[in-house]
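Usage

Read records sequentially. Each one opens with the input sequence:
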Amino acid sequence: MPRISPTKKAILASALELSALHGISGTTMEQVSERAGVAKGSVYYNFSSKDKLFEELLITGIGTLSETLRTARTSAAGFGAIEAMVRDVLTLISENRSLAKLVVSEIFRTDRPWQDTMQILRREAVSEFGTALAPLVPAGTSESSRLLMAGGIFGATLMGGLEWLLFNPETPAAEVAAAILFTFSGQLTSPTS
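and closes with the structure output:
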């Protein structure tokens, strides 16, 4: 990943914090410049528009999420890969609460200029879960069904993670992961079952 200037980092961090508080629509470029401690012109120098600023935030999030899922998926086999993926996504959500809120609030919006970026995020996450599920689903399961299952696990993890952070932050992460995984564990079989 290319290096970014301290100014650009400050702008991105400020935009993320503000959007977590006020939503993207409620965040202005002026607020971002004030929070970042830079001139408004610096914000526009780095990002030609608010849309470009938030699209870059989402692209950064996609890269982080994709790498987290890929690493977790390859760290174990069978249902262990799904467990690792759920645990690692929950850790990522916990460590990046503002980004998680932004992603959840935007993932199903279809009226945003960055909708294509959000679809990439969803596709990559679902694909990673789908790959991990391939040896676990019954023979003859269609790819579209497997990807729907993968989307369900990803969605449950994302929403369960936010539910945890907003309403039950005292619950240990392992307990949250176990609760999410319990929902799916009885439905998936290993090839040896």
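Summary fields computed downstream for this record:
- The chain has nine helices and no strands.
- The two ends are 42 Å apart (CA to CA).
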